[in-house]
UniProtKB/TrEMBL annotation:
<keyword id="KW-0238">DNA-binding</keyword>
<dbReference type="InterPro" id="IPR050397">
    <property type="entry name" value="Env_Response_Regulators"/>
</dbReference>
<dbReference type="InterPro" id="IPR012318">
    <property type="entry name" value="HTH_CRP"/>
</dbReference>
<keyword id="KW-0805">Transcription regulation</keyword>
<keyword id="KW-0804">Transcription</keyword>
<feature type="domain" description="Cyclic nucleotide-binding">
    <location>
        <begin position="10"/>
        <end position="114"/>
    </location>
</feature>
<dbReference type="Pfam" id="PF13545">
    <property type="entry name" value="HTH_Crp_2"/>
</dbReference>
<dbReference type="InterPro" id="IPR000595">
    <property type="entry name" value="cNMP-bd_dom"/>
</dbReference>
<dbReference type="InterPro" id="IPR014710">
    <property type="entry name" value="RmlC-like_jellyroll"/>
</dbReference>
<feature type="domain" description="HTH crp-type">
    <location>
        <begin position="145"/>
        <end position="217"/>
    </location>
</feature>
<dbReference type="InterPro" id="IPR018490">
    <property type="entry name" value="cNMP-bd_dom_sf"/>
</dbReference>
<dbReference type="Pfam" id="PF00027">
    <property type="entry name" value="cNMP_binding"/>
</dbReference>
<dbReference type="InterPro" id="IPR036390">
    <property type="entry name" value="WH_DNA-bd_sf"/>
</dbReference>
<protein>
    <submittedName>
        <fullName>Crp/Fnr family transcriptional regulator</fullName>
    </submittedName>
</protein>
<dbReference type="InterPro" id="IPR036388">
    <property type="entry name" value="WH-like_DNA-bd_sf"/>
</dbReference>
Length: 228
């Protein structure tokens, strides 16, 4: 699974000249925490490049009552490019995790720029391909892995831990249980049950909007499919 992705952010792949010309296409805008930068189903076509802060990318599940978080995006990330290119309704909602600074570029200006700059167009296509592959992996994980495995894998990813490194104190993931549930397509109750199991085995310690990794090696084994 890949909530964060492992490719260099779009803006960081541009040459200095490309970066300057792309940013000149739009205007800087500030967003407060929890604001929607993009909304699923909306017919707007602008793109957003994150300058500072982090956002979640989410979709409504088939049941319609909950949201599934598809990704976390940070500085340098390009968002909204699908609607800008195909002019169809937005496929996901982008919500600010905290205060956000971003460059907002109209869809028309972005399309014209890509038509004149094939290298940058290729970078956008590569990003789209990477995200589609990641989405396929997420769907496969939802169908084939248990909640415990998905949760273990997500905690490993979000904490950025390396099980081969000795830690004086465990890496910490700062998300509430309902937010963790939304990142793995599970109910809050199922995540709470999985966390209880991890706590009883002294693999994690939990607190208010916090999960501390106590045993990185064992958590990684669980993420890889080795059940307790």
């Amino acid at each position: 699974m890949g909530l964060l992705g492992n490719e260099l952010a779009f803006a960081h792949t541009l040459t200095p000249q490309e970066h300057e010309s792309v940013m000149a296409l739009g205007n800087r805008k500030s967003y407060p925490a929890d604001a929607h930068l993009l909304t699923e189903g909306d017919r707007s076509s602008h793109v957003v490049i994150i300058i500072q802060g982090w956002v979640t990318v989410s979709v409504v599940t088939d049941r319609g009552a909950t949201r599934l978080i598809l990704g976390l995006r940070g500085p340098g990330e390009l968002l909204g490019e699908m609607a800008a290119l195909d002019q169809h309704p937005r496929s996901a909602t982008v919500r600010a995790l905290g205060s956000i600074e971003a460059q907002v570029i109209s869809g028309d200006a972005f399309r014209r720029y890509l038509a004149l700059h094939p290298r940058v167009s290729g970078l956008v296509i590569r990003q789209l391909t990477f995200r589609l592959r990641s989405a396929d992996q997420e769907r496969s994980a939802l169908a084939s892995l248990t909640v415990l495995q998905r949760l273990a894998g997500r905690l490993v990813e979000l904490s950025g831990l390396d099980p081969s490194v000795p830690y004086a104190s465990g890496p910490v993931v700062h998300l509430a249980q309902d937010e963790l549930a939304a990142t793995i397509g599970a109910t809050r109750e199922a995540v709470a049950k999985a966390l209880r199991l991890l706590r009883t085995q002294n693999i994690v310690r939990t607190g208010n909007r916090m999960v501390e990794i106590l045993d990185p090696g064992l958590l990684t084994l669980l993420a890889d499919g080795h059940q307790e």
